[in-house]
Design goal:
mainly alpha, 12 helices, two-stranded antiparallel ribbon
Length: 317
Amino acid sequence: MIHFKNILAGIGLVATTAVCVQAVQQDDDTQRIDPEIKKTNKLVNDYNVYAIPLPETLDFAGEPVPLDNPDIRERLDRELLVNTYWQSNGLLLIKRAAKYFPIIEPILEEEGLPDDFKYLAVIESGLTQAVSPARATGFWQILRSTGRELGLEVNDNVDERYNIELSTRAACRYLKNSKENLGSWTLAAAGYNAGNAGMSRRLDQQNVNGYYDLLLGEETGRYVFRILALKQILADPERYGFNFKEEHLYEKVPSYKVKVDTVVTDFVQFAEHFGINYKILKLHNPWLREDHLNNASRKAYQIEIPKEGYYNANIGQ
């Protein structure tokens, strides 16, 4: 009986092997007939897209996000997916954050704002000196009139919206006022996009008192969720599949400040006096909008000069 079973097992093995070989041969034949199939199979096998688990708990500026609400979960999921799989942009934000967060973070702390507001600058400008179609400018995307109201000098010769330190302090003043008027940091963040008056009007119209209960337009409705998504990704990029080494991150060139309270007639010569060229001077001081400084009021400006040894200025070549 055992011998008979062994014979049957052997027959089954041979039959199974024959089927497998036939399948492989058919697959090879198909790929020879249509090479695109092989290419497609390799693409599918080598590239995979994954759903992203949502965090169990989440907050903005210490204020909890109601993740038990299915609408809130879907909106957060959307922004996590969009920003995780926009890989080139994500890596650029990670690199820039290493350079600019050390400038922004201590200012937020000094001004009494939660650290989470650094992510607002990320979604506003991508940590670049961007200019929007509405002419909102700089890291914090401040309009000309708003900048002046917040104490910034804004004209054709000097535009302090391009000064990271000064514009960060101006944004802090705006956000603290928003928090006082609207009642929460989350609403203050949304108000940075929609305006304080607009947020107050919507709260009254819909008879609610929180951002997550408001029915809003597309841009403001996504605004806080974009901040939350970037907070998750930039705080723990490896978790979201971003791979890099410390050497890949951008670094701020060490610098010092020079006080200038006079007219400067030629920034080309001014730069050369400090061993740099005009381009490098403007890279470190984008708020200087022209090749000279009018300064009729004899205001004291702080001009940033990079320390020696970080640039090859190629002056006079």
